[in-house]
User: Fold this.
Amino acid sequence: MDNTVLSHNILYYRYPLLLLGGIMKDGTKVFSVYFAVVFLFLLALTLLWAAAVAYATYNILTRVL
Assistant:
């Protein structure tokens, strides 16, 4: 195990967002499927939250007005 692999492992655990750049453990740049799954999950959660807030706001406004 050489130093480059070790440093990449440390970077992974410290900075998971480096997966965005797709730096894999052997140093080659490949888009990470893991990052894509996490990104889509967070995007879906954000959209659900926004829809819930919009619906609640609409309900409150239509009752008040």
